[in-house]
Amino acid sequence: MNQMKQQQSGFTLVEIAIVLVIIGLLLGGVLKGQELINSAKVKNMIGDFRSVSSLVYAYQDRFKAFPGDQNQNQLNDAFGNAVSAACAPAAANQCAQNNGRIDGSWQAGNADGSGVLTDESSLFWQHVRQANLTTGPTLLANTAYRPRNADGGLIGVEMAGGLAPFIAGMRGSFFVCSDGILGRYVRQIDTTMDDGNTAGGSVQAVPTGSARGAAATATNAIVDGNQYIVCAAY
Q1: What is the model's pLDDT at position 233?
Q2: Is residue 132 domain-resident?
Q3: Domain ranges, residue 220
Q4: How many domains are there within the chain?
Q5: What pLDDT digit, counting tens, does each position of 16-72 carry?
């Protein structure tokens, strides 16, 4: 009797090994791509801090005043019939024209861009844009008026001497703050710009939603997936 030979089909060990290698390469590529995206975001956010600080110095050098702090006559002389407005009415720690600082909170101005004229820190953006130091809308009612970082969080500036520092104990002439930054980026930003200690030095962080005067969060307490406000002192 002739026996029928049955052929068995399947993958050889070599084929399986090749598939596993391909999967490994694909996963490695995905992870590397994500790492590059994260690095690009961190560089972008660091660029925000540095560029905003440059705006303060450049405007002061050109007009001998801080953006947001000039009166209407000074603005008219500087920009002619442009849309620049002076803060009004006078209000303690919000609007004191020509007092040599940018009054108001870095958060001034609603998230929808409606803004408030009482805060010099809100008018800051209109004035530096009118001076062609940076780009962006000059009308406070524009929904894109407030600049945002790479993760969509608001960016702002405020000056020491009026309100207490947003993060308790921070020292500097002025502060640039950026909101909605994930913890995994916070540590990289601090390590690159400062000393890697998010509770000390010139770069510090507090959880998003914190009230003014909150204590800075220690580096070992930063959670990768949580959002933080990062402030840099200058």
Answers
A1: 98
A2: yes
A3: 164-234
A4: 2
A5: 777 777 777 777 666 656 666 678 899 999 999 999 999 999 999 999 999 999 999
To the question of pTM greater than 0.85 for the whole model, the response is no
pLDDT digits (tens, 9 = 90+) for 64-107: 999 999 999 999 999 987 888 999 889 999 999 999 999 999 99
Say if 31 falls within a structural domain.
no
Same domain? 57 vs 127: yes
3-state secondary structure the chain: CCCCCCCCCCCCHHHHHHHHHHHHHHHHHHHHHHHHHHHHHHHHHHHHHHHHHHHHHHHHHHHCCCCCCCCHHHHHHHHCCCCCCCCCCCECCCECCCCCCCCCCCCCCCCCCCCCCCCHHHHHHHHHHHCCCCCCCCCCCCCCCCCECCCCCEEEEEECCCCCCCECCCCCCEEEEEEEEEHHHHHHHHHHHCCCCCCCCCEEEEECCCCCCECCCCHHHCCCCCEEEEEEEC
